[in-house]
Amino acid sequence: MDSVVAIVQSVAPFIALVWAIYAFYDARKSDRDDALRVERQSVYQSYLKEIHALQRPHRTLVENGAESFSRLSPHHQMVALIAPDPVARASLEYLSTFIGSHLYKDDQPMIELSERTLPVAKKDIDEVIDAMEPTRSALKALIIAMRKDTLQGTKVDPRLTDIDELEKRIGEEGRPPEQR
Asked: Which residues of 75-99 are buried (b: 16+ CB within 10 A; e: fewer)?
C-alpha cells in the first residue's frame, strides 16, 4: 500500500504540470479565437457600411454593378482571408451578382429607374426589380452567414435578419418567439 501511495505522490506533480500546460494552451487558443472573432466583426462592419454607402450614379445597371464590384472587392478579400468558408462563399456569391447577363435586356444594359423618362411603366419597374433580386437574395444570405459566425454561442438568433423573416416565422409558429 505504501508503494502505491509513493507512486501516486511521485506522479501527481507530473500530472499537475501536464494539466497546467494544457490549460495554458487552451486559454491561449481561446484568446486567439476571441481576437479573431473581434477582427472578423470589424471586417464585417466595414463591409456592410460600404454596401450601404453604395451609390447608383451611372445610367445603367451594368455600370453601377461594375463600380459596386470594384468598391466591394477589397472587403471581400478581407472576408476571404479571415472568415469561415460559409461567409467567404456568401460574400463571393454576393459580389458576383454585380456582373452578369441578368443586368441586360435584349442584349442592352438595363437602364436605372432614376434615369428613365417619367412616368416609368410598371413593366419596366418590375424588370429592374427582378434584375436586382439576385443581389438582394445574396446580401441576405451574406448577412445570415455573418450573423451565424459572430453570434455563435450567444442567445441571439442568427436567422432573424429582416422583418419578412420574422413575420414568416410568426406565421409558421402562430406566435412570436418570446411568447413560446
From this structure: bbebbeeebeeebbbbbebbbebbe
Strands (E), 71-111: 104-105, 108-109
What pTM was computed for the model? 0.72
pLDDT of residue 170: 64
Question: Which of 55, 78, 63, 51 has the alpha carbon at shortest distance from 139?
Answer: 51
Residues 105-132 as b or e (16 or more Cβ within 10 Å = b): eeeebbbbbeeeeeeeeeebeeebeebb
DSSP 121: P
Question: 106: part of which helix (H) or strand (E)?
Answer: none
Concatenating the DSSP letter of every residue in 13-65 gives HHHHHHHHHHHHHHHHHHHHHHHHHHHHHHHHHHHHHHHHH----SSBHHHHH
Cis peptide before 119 (omega within 30 of 0): yes
DSSP state of 108: E
| β-bridge partners, 109 | 104
Residues of the chain with pLDDT under 50: none
Grid cell locating 97:
451578382
Tell me how far apart the alpha carbons of residues 88 and 127 are, in angstroms, rounded to a whole number: 29
What radius of gyration do the chain's Cα atoms show?
Answer: 26
